[in-house]
Amino acid sequence: MKAFVILPIHLFEDIEHLKNKDYDEIFLIEEYIHFRYLPYHKLKLAFHRATMKMYYDYLKKKKINVTYIDAFDKKSFKKYEIYMMNPADHLIINRWKKECKKLNTIATKSFLISEEEILERENENFTHDTFYKFMRKKLDVLMDKNKPEGGKWSFDKENRKSMSKNTKVPELDLTNNNEYTREAIKYVKNKFKNNYGDLPEDFPYPTTHSRVKKWLKEFIKERFNKFGDYQDFVSNKHPFMFHSVISPFLNVGMITDKEVLEETKKAKVDINDKEGFLRQLIGWRQYVYTVYMNKGQKMRQMNFFKAKMKLPEKIWLGETKIKPIDDIIKKLNQYAYSHHIERLMWLGAFFLLLGVKPIDVNDWFMVMHIDSYDVFMIPNIFGMTQHADGGEMMTRPYFSSSNYLLKMSDYKKNDGEKLKLGKEEYNWAEIWDSLYYDFISQHKKYLEKNYSTARQVYHWNNKNKKEQSKIKKIAKLYKNYLKN
């Protein structure tokens, strides 16, 4: 028997691929990897449940005969030859190969680069910069006769402005309740009551195709014109800043990369806004997909800095005493969301400086973020934030002292309570800088060889023995605090 399996990440409005009359059955499945593989955030699970139940009704209205399989149904697929859209997920592929008679995949609609183009790059070592230029030319986006519009490929330097207190940040419409969200909340409370995260009665995210399209239009109308300026800024007052928060919907097929690209191309905003957004969509998103498909299985095993710390319970609880980190974790508990700079330069860098095992970091991000999936997390964690691949994907590890964090946020050094370590008390910035220099000390032979990090080693070497000893002591005491 032939059956088509629809995964939680393939809820496309276009259903031409389901009209093949050769399929004996079609199943919409709460995939184990998406529901039970890790103790996922309750809001993430409720989002999956609500969007899938919506999709079930959508397919029924389109005269598609579909069977819904929930996460606890014990359905056997041993007799089936299974067809599914390529999930871009090694864990799912490997699992289904064991679950069915034969597994066949068809091309995914989730990305802007084809599987054939990815295979062409299988043995290449290419940077994001070269890949991004390739995608701009391929899609003819922001191009002027084969040259970049505006005279340069990236306006990244125009994306790093500090935000004044007087800047008005529009609020998102976070009331998206409907019959699907109400049922999903009950389902998750009943079946996943011990999982992480909050589950608000007012459901924050859209769960229908039409509402997602409206969500995108609201971003373009209300926030896009300030996105470029402040995309790297972190605020403890504005959880979403000027970000689109479109990734949860892209990642489950509720809207496609192509649709978002077409809408944003038409927007009348400055080039630093448009290029900054499209760099994420047609550059970074397609880049990590390509890296994952070619190198993801190998990456998952890597630990270049030989990090050994298990992820401490205090991080799960948001009790690190690093005020900005605890605030981001609090936001994650509420919304299952943090934006890309919070993930890279705050959370990711914090785990890197502590020496947390990359696989633990990966699993934590997978649990806590509504838009986290293997295809995005493996490259972003092992290749980007934790530099676990030793520089195969990125030329340097990304981390900073508190100076950068203070400059690019509305936090102050003395925000939050001081933490007593030994006989003295320290603010969060002092602790962060101790972790920063302790990390440099541990890996200075590697870091001094890299042009981008050599100066950081120079600053460490310029400190006298007494200063270095105190820094190492604070870092050690803090790590012990987290573990106990």
Protein described:
By secondary structure, this protein is an alpha/beta fold. The chain has 3 domains: 2-106, HUPs (Rossmann fold); 115-170 and 223-295, Serine Threonine Protein Phosphatase 5, Tetratricopeptide repeat (Alpha Horseshoe), CATH 1.25.40; 313-483, DNA Cyclobutane Dipyrimidine Photolyase, subunit A, domain 3 (Orthogonal Bundle). Helix content is 49%, strand content 8%. A 5-stranded parallel sheet has the order 3-2-1-4-5. The mean pLDDT is 96.
Describe this structure in a few short sentences.
By secondary structure, the chain is α/β, with parallel strands linked by helices. It contains 21 helices and nine strands. It has a five-stranded parallel β-sheet. It has a two-stranded antiparallel ribbon with strand order 6-7. It has a two-stranded antiparallel sheet with strand order 8-9.
